[in-house]
Amino acid sequence: MRSRGLLIIGIGAIAASLLLAVGGIGAGGMMGRAFGGGSGDIGMDRAVKIAQDTAASYSGGSLVADEVIEFTDNYYASIREKGTGIGAFEILIDRASGNVIREPGPDMMWNAKYSMMGGGMMGGFGVNGSRSMTVTTQQAQDVAQRWLDANQTGTSAKAPDSFYGFYTVDFQKAGRLVGMLSVNGYGGQVWYHSWHGTFIQVRDLGASNGQ
After folding, report:
1. CA 20 to 30 Å from 181, out of 18, 68, 156, 164?
2. Considering only CA atoms, which of 161, 54, 165 is closest in space to residue 109?
3. Mean per-residue pLDDT, 84-112
4. What's the whole-model pTM score?
5. Would residue 45 count as lying in a domain?
6. Minimal CA–CA distance to 164: which of 91, 115, 100?
């Protein structure tokens, strides 16, 4: 199984991320500008609340925010199914404004169940059929480690988090988280998350991993 790094996300991928705001679509419109690049920082507590409200906005109350990670360029949050513990989707939260977008890259392109393409946001995600991934959790970690050995010397892959259609893998150096990548659950391709910046802190919200 050959892994390859997909290091560039295009302007089109960012534009395709639909803007979320807690309680409804943001004022910028469905395809509006999500991250304005302004100064300031909403802080971890507010980022956690935004992630929790985003999960709660999904109809049926079946989703929960699992963790929020602060990076220099944004806050990352994973949203999981309460019943299975499997990842539903990933979001980015703007540090200055608190605006929310679906994470570009693997969550947009590889998500086999909670697709952005089949419906509106905030309770209207397109929920597609999904089939079992052919790449196992251990294989995904092995693929990630081989990619890291070739591209991020001295780092080690942590246990992957399962989503529908892909895995997301945190990697660390000297016991400290330094970055993230995703592994396709069917072909084993690697997509490096190049948009986060430097790790600052993580807050575990206690959702089950389901593995």
Report:
1. 18
2. 165
3. 95
4. 0.78
5. yes
6. 115
